[in-house]
Amino acid sequence: MKLSIVLTLATLPSALAASGYHRTPVGEYISSGCKYATEAKVTFCKKSNAKRFDCQCTNENALASMAYCGYQETEHSPDKRHSFEKSFIKSCKGNITHDDIEAAYNRALKKIVSVKDIPNFNKTVPVKVPVKYDHTAYVTGYRSRESRSRNKDDALEMSFVLLCFWGLVTVSSGLVHVSRRMAPTLWLSANRSLNNITLFRKLRQYVTIPATHRGKHTEKYGYLGFLPTRLESIIIFIFVTLSVVFHAVRYEFVFPNTSYKTRHAQMGRLVGDRSGMLANCLFVLTWLFASRNSIILAFTGWKQSTMLTYHKAIARTAIASTLVHTIAMLVHTLDLGKDRYTSRSKTGWWRWGSVATVAACVILIQAQAWFRMYSYEIFLYLHILLAVFVLAGAWIHTAWFDDEQWYFACAALWCLDRFIRLARMGYFGFRTAHARVLSAESGIFEVVVPKHKAWIAFPGAVAYVYFLGTPLFWQSHPFTIAPAEDGKLRFVIKAKRGATASILRRLLASPDQTASIRICVEGPYGNYAPIKNYDHLLIYAGGSGIPGPLCYAKHLGELALSSRAPFVKLYWVVRHAADLDWYKDDLTALARYSNIQPIVYITRPESALATKAEADSFSDDDSNEGPASSPQKENSLSEITTRLPYSKQLAHVQFRYSRPDTAQLIAEDMADFAGASVAVMSCASPNMVDDIRAAVAVAAGSHKSSTIDYYEELQVW
Ligand SMILES: Cc1cc2nc3c(=O)[nH]c(=O)nc-3n(C[C@H](O)[C@H](O)[C@H](O)COP(=O)(O)OP(=O)(O)OC[C@H]3O[C@@H](n4cnc5c(N)ncnc54)[C@H](O)[C@@H]3O)c2cc1C
Ligand SMILES: NC(=O)c1ccc[n+]([C@@H]2O[C@H](COP(=O)([O-])OP(=O)(O)OC[C@H]3O[C@@H](n4cnc5c(N)ncnc54)[C@H](OP(=O)(O)O)[C@@H]3O)[C@@H](O)[C@H]2O)c1
Question: Which of 180, 340, 505, 599: disulfide with 654, CB 3.0–4.6 Å?
Fold first, then answer.
């Protein structure tokens, strides 16, 4: 991770610095203005190029006329004169000196004439004397050059503002995260003081904690997919507004113009230049926020899903910017004439630019939530392929204009991330894991694999698992690390429709519902939530969301044996009593810890009687009554758990037989813990997690004397 921090830090600034951008000096405008003005009416050389200064650097009359113009226009400003001399010398690639310019000026003072004083003047025949320039033409040349160069300089500075904006967002989040970690007591007491201020509490209730709209954050919001939290939405809104404003303001259209005959040609070019340069910067940010091994994640403590939320917003803005660039340049080219369109459309830069634009537009469609949900794997590999086309296309396109440095940065970030991922996989190696079904009814299985001692599994850690010994070896899926015996890693997995379902099917097909599978683990990722300094920790877990919360509970239980640790209420909501089988040993182990109070909600206690584990429990109990025939079933729901074979081991666990009203539960717990510092953690099904977020926002807004923080472990993207 340290290596990734250093390398990521080094990549971006060096890529930007290497690009060598600087604001165009005024001397270049003066040079351009003078070149245009001196050549507007006369010819100095038989061959002259509108953009290059070859004639001015070599022809003594052109040089003298140029020096005369430059010195006259900078008569009252030594700085501008110096800048003019510097720019002119640069345009001549150092083939003239300051003394040459001064000498040429002195010569001009003696010999310069007006066009009208030249006998038998013919514009096509090179003149033999220095000629006075036309000031109006000078202004046109100056302003034409200024409007285009200033637009590019502005675009660069706007790009830096966008980079700084994200720098500010990450640095502020990082400072909050680091201060929480480094000075937790100070953090909590500062929070307590701030909590007395109504505005602060309301800010938390309505801005920093809740979901953006209708309480949906981890649960899908129709076709829009996953909505950011309200704070994330505000950050994205500011960023998008800044980007739109940067695309729209500070254009200076100059007429008449030395380069463009029509208004459309000029507008197309200026808008095209601006949006192209902004798109370059936005693509760097897009890659930066796509990385799994990013310094940003380590510094801010954000979840991967937060990074990806920003990645999506930035990427969409980058694609919009690319489209603006493409359309504007097309308008510009069409306005220059059909011939120009035909010749340009055959160039490499045009074709590779088109490849990048088309690939980016396809990404915009294929990365929609419905497509990711439909098949994550097809989405992922198509996404990578299209991203390769965007990167290659944009790189080759911009290399024509010496702007490809931005894409070095994108490629460097991407390669670095992939390299670290490979290194992590290599470090873990290919190992044989033991997989077994925990509940066929709920589709839950576990995978246990031995690990190195140095591979640290911490509470909240997540790892990507490659099931090499299956036809799906090329996929990797994220799973939370569950409590396990020393030297082992354990994942408890709820089968969905894809890879996890296929592994479950394989397990179910084997006689003892187990299998040995070669796996590779890439990790650990994630952040340890800094919860140990709170007075209380409320954990709300649902179904297969329990592994992370259990790790935290065990960790705090162990901590309490030797030092101060929060009191933990661990709520686990499951459908059937049989679901307790998955974690009965871990639940049993919690009995050792006096600061842990496990409370299990069973939401469908009656249907539990139909499950295999339940049936087993009845027969183990030597009961003559089968589960279906028990007349006491309806009368006593608690029998469901007391009849479990391991019910005595779970005497410390409180059972409740209903679906919890999380809002009410949180309100009651907060009332009990009034005046204390409370951390709330959730990892459950998305709708339950969203309910908890909403309830915590209300609690944070209304409890003056308590400090309430929210840690959401569930991640969706
Ligand atoms: C940080 C994190 C930790 C997780 N921990 C656990 C855990 O401990 N136990 C558990 O049962 N589940 C966990 N999940 C969910 C688990 O990763 C998915 O259920 C699994 O990847 C689905 O694989 P599949 O091919 O069967 O999915 P599919 O049936 O193809 O898809 C089901 C859902 O999972 C999403 N999904 C599929 N592949 C991925 C992927 N590679 N990355 C992200 N999302 C994906 C899809 O978008 C879809 O919404 C975790 C998810 C995340 C993001
Ligand atoms: N770090 C991570 O991101 C991470 C880690 C582990 C797991 N996961 C994922 O997390 C999800 C866990 O969900 P699951 O499918 O295992 O759970 P589930 O089976 O859908 O639900 C578990 C229990 O929660 C109850 N419940 C659901 N919504 C509720 C609400 N709003 N209020 C109160 N109770 C509610 C259900 O009650 P009913 O019976 O009434 O429906 C059920 O008893 C899985 O998708 C898993 O892949 C993610």
Answer: 599
HSE value, Cβ hemisphere, 13 Å, CA-based, for 386: 19
Q: Are residues 549 and 495 in the same domain?
A: no
CB 368 within 8 A of CB 221: no
Q: Where do we find the tokens 């469908």?
A: 604
263 and 301 share one domain: yes
Pocket flag, ligand 2, residue 230 (CB < 6 Å): no
Which strand (E) or helix (H) includes residue 225?
none
Are residues 550 and 503 part of one domain? no
pLDDT at 19: 57
Instruction: Please check whether residue 339 lies inside any domain of the structure.
Output: yes
pLDDT for 637 equals 67
Tell me: pLDDT of 529 over 90: yes
Q: What's the distance, Cα to Cα, between the start and end of the chain in Å?
A: 23
In three-state form (DSSP H/G/I as H, E/B as E, the rest C), the secondary structure along 337-379 is CHHHHHHHCCCHHHHHHHHHHHHHHHHHHHCCHHHHHHCHHHH
Q: Residue 619 corresponds to which amino acid? A: S
Tens of pLDDT, residue by residue over 188-241, are 999 999 999 999 999 999 999 999 999 999 999 988 899 999 999 999 999 999
Query: Is 522 a residue whose pLDDT tops 60?
Result: yes
The Cα–Cα gap between 499 and 513 comes to 17
pLDDT at 441: 86
In a domain, 650, yes or no: yes
Q: Whose CA is nearest to atom 1 of ligand 2?
A: 714
Is residue 415 in a domain? yes
Assign 645 a pLDDT band (cuts: 50, 70, 90): confident
Based on the domain organization, do 387 and 467 belong to the same domain? Answer: no
Whole-number Å distance, alpha carbon 369 to ligand 2 midpoint, is: 20
What is the distance in A from the centroid of ligand 1 to the CA of 299?
25
Q: What is the pLDDT of residues 126-174, one digit of tens each?
A: 999 999 999 999 999 999 999 999 999 999 999 999 999 999 999 999 9
- The tens digit of pLDDT for each residue in 602-631 reads 999 876 444 444 444 434 444 433 333 444
Residues 410 and 437 in one domain: no
Domain containing residue 93: 41-133
Q: How far apart (Å, rounded) are the C-alpha atoms in residues 561 and 239?
A: 48
Q: What tens digit of pLDDT does each residue of 272-289 get?
A: 999 999 999 999 999 999
Domain count, the chain: 4
Check if 152 has its Cβ closer than 6 Å to any atom of ligand 1: no
**Residue of minimum CA distance from atom 29 in ligand 2:** 688
3-class SS letters over 460-526: CCEEEEEECCCCCCCCEEEEEEECCCCCEEEEEEECCCCHHHHHHHHHHHCCCCEEEEEEEEEEEEC
Is 579 near ligand 2, meaning CB less than 6 Å away? no
**Angle made by CA atoms 348, 351, 354, in degrees to the nearest 5:** 145
